[in-house]
Amino acid sequence: MKQYKSEEIKKFLINKWWQETHQKGSHCYLYNPQTKKLTTIPMHAKDLKIGTLLAILRQTGLTKNDLL
To answer: What is the structure's pLDDT at 16?
Structure first.
C-alpha cells in the first residue's frame, strides 16, 4: 500500500464531505455531519503508518480502493 502524508489524507477527506472542526496540538479533528462521525488525523511531518491510515479509513467508512 502506498504511503500518504497527513495533509494528503486531510484534503482527501475534506473532498469527501468531512469538515475540520478544530486542531489541538498536532492532531486535526474532522467531522462528517451526514454520518455524525468524528475522526482524528495526526499532523506529523512523516508519512502516516499503515495501521494509522487503515484506522482512519475504518472510522470514516471508506476503503483502500477509495484512495486510488
So the answer is: 95
What is the spatial distance between Cα 31 and Cα 34, in angstroms, rounded to a whole number? 9
Q: What is the pLDDT of residues 18-27, one digit of tens each?
A: 999 999 999 9
Q: Is the dihedral of CA 11, 34, 66, 43 positive or negative?
A: positive
- Residue 56 CB contacts under 8 Å (≥ 6 apart), including other chains: 9, 39, 40, 41, 48
d(C-alpha 5, C-alpha 22), whole Å: 19
User: Could you give the CA distance from residue 62 to residue 65 in angstroms, rounded to a whole number?
Assistant: 8
Q: Mind listing the pLDDT tens digit for each residue in 38-54?
A: 999 999 999 999 999 99
